[in-house]
Amino acid sequence: MPVNLSAPDPSRLSPVSGIELGTARAGIRKPGRRDLLVARFAPESTAGAVFTRNRFCAAPVTLARANLQACGQRPRALVVNTGNANAGTGTAGLDAARRTCAAVATVLGTASDAVIPMSTGVILEHLPVERIEAGLGEAIADLKPDNWAAAAEAIMTTDSVPKAASRRVEVDGKMATITGIAKGAGMIRPNMATMLAFIATDAAIVPDLLHERVGRIADASFNRITVDGDTSTNDTLLVVATGRSGARAGAGSDAFFAALEAVAVELAQAIVRDGEGATKFITVRVERAAAEDEAAAVAYAIAHSPLVKTAFFASDPNLGRILAAIGYAGIADLDVDGVDVYLDDVHVATAGGRHPDYQEADGQRVMKQSEITVRVVLGRGAAATTVWTCDLSHDYVSINADYRS
Amino acid sequence: MPVNLSAPDPSRLSPVSGIELGTARAGIRKPGRRDLLVARFAPESTAGAVFTRNRFCAAPVTLARANLQACGQRPRALVVNTGNANAGTGTAGLDAARRTCAAVATVLGTASDAVIPMSTGVILEHLPVERIEAGLGEAIADLKPDNWAAAAEAIMTTDSVPKAASRRVEVDGKMATITGIAKGAGMIRPNMATMLAFIATDAAIVPDLLHERVGRIADASFNRITVDGDTSTNDTLLVVATGRSGARAGAGSDAFFAALEAVAVELAQAIVRDGEGATKFITVRVERAAAEDEAAAVAYAIAHSPLVKTAFFASDPNLGRILAAIGYAGIADLDVDGVDVYLDDVHVATAGGRHPDYQEADGQRVMKQSEITVRVVLGRGAAATTVWTCDLSHDYVSINADYRS
Q1: Among the four residues A192, B94, B136, B292, which has the most C-beta atoms within 10 Å?
Q2: Which domains does chain B have, with CATH numbers?
Q3: What radius of gyration, in Å, describes the C-alpha atoms of chain B?
Q4: ipTM
């Protein structure tokens, strides 16, 4: 059961002028479910993307990176399959990804390197590219602007609900729309991007600026979530700007980029809310660190600790586990007497131990909530960061012990 | 259920001349169980120790380090309590540890700084030192050389079986005995030592040599195991040499130090075999790395991945999860085409993908075993390392969601 997250209301997902989406049931892994998505972008669309830093990156990641460069950040289409990650597949996998892009290019009448591929699913198995080719006709026939909800559904794997978000914002005196979809529930600790997110806007953004901002936005959203600490082989965030609204977003368009970031954060948080087996949504905020890296190291030590995560699952204010995680986060000169820890508004630890006013009942009250903020004040400097994560439950084990069967 | 590990046969634990052990039921956390251990060391005994690197280290760790130095590595006693870690307890915790040592020193007629304290159990709660004081009489009355099995039992927390090991080895023309005990099942990713291990020998070893060798031995044993990646606040390994056998172990006594290391490895592996919820014992061997640090980073990425650990639990040869972990282990210039992965004798991955001869049935056969070796050959250099770990099961979640209740 996702934490305070339900399927998006299709009527609240604004179509983005210049973007059409179509889905198909291609039977890639299992018959009968939508597992193929094609999106067509208007001419003149620009794009920026960030990809996984996993060295065993998937063939579609390698090809997407190459194609985006080859087409001068002006792609014309996106093709996504679920059920098979096309990762750990060697040169045969790269050939399969190329064949997929070529097939899409042929039916859409565009260049092969203007097609951005994404895949998600099982690793180390060959992509059944002939099923993708056979399903393309159905997806192309389905292309339409108000198809975001179906698109969000077509990219799911172990997700329990589709994930989509939409904003409208004024930029350059005109209204622009931003709509995005994402998928992911396990193998989630993105590094420079997450497991498949696609965000589109009808604002116009020059390629260099878009490239720079997509990196920054990923750092503030998908790069700040973790479910299990496992960085996927396929993580990709693609942002496409069609320019069809006539609104031009420049370096000074703060409100626009804030809205773009808000969509990214909403999608990133949705991935955590739907984290495999999640019953709690946890915000870990680390403040007064000497540097942002240091803040992130402490936040991730807490967010990845199986002991902390099982204590959240149990609603048990076993705060010593949080202190232990802070202690092993790798800050060699940490003075534990200067550290303060809060659960929401409850001051639980200070001066190397339990806060004198802390009552177990107060900790218990916060731990029972479905949304909890752990705030750690290191007392070392001015840097801070936030990481979002979920708890570790029996269902996480069940989902991952049964996933392939 | 521990993996291929049963309670030690008391008759196979050789007493160590110069060491007496006594236990008591002090009711520190729960009534009726042995939770207090006192060990008395003969005069002239030398000792070496390594301690946790967790910055939130427990009060007994701080005091043990100070006392070992103050007594010139010639301690006369050890006192261990379970049920309370005396960690995250500030200055009051340090006072409680000092009071404990003083009480032991008084009844044994020795100096307070010749007493080494260890605590294990819940973090962030004050140590009920008066219960330890009240239980000391019972423990002292119980002091005897052939009490190792009871001692191993008295230091358990979530352990399901006591852990002890014993060896006899010839050194300097005389027979020496080495016997040790350890505890630990969760919050196990030792950094420079593990959650409470005590090894004694009746060989004579000068303090400087003992200090140096204990560090080396910890690196080859307790520093190579992980259950959940959580480095404890209390990890301590203490090795005491009484010299009572008349055997002198010097820098060239390779067979003796190999036997000492073998006892440490057996105890360290016993902790993994009894890892919380463990159903499989996994050896992760990384070879042909550019440096040992790099080998360890890859080994720990695999050993800590919740996805890899749940796949082991499911006996599912979902090898893509292992490749993904290698890929995110932080080797920026890793050429995945040069990596080979084996499950025991089965060659599963090569050249960035699945080995052409690999059959799922072969992987399945290995994954069903209770003991599995994952061997990763990086093809980058001559360094290698081994890490021992266990799988992640439903019982891990149950144990840690219920531990305090």
Answers
A1: B136
A2: 10-273 (3.60.70.12), 281-402 (3.10.20.340)
A3: 22
A4: 0.80
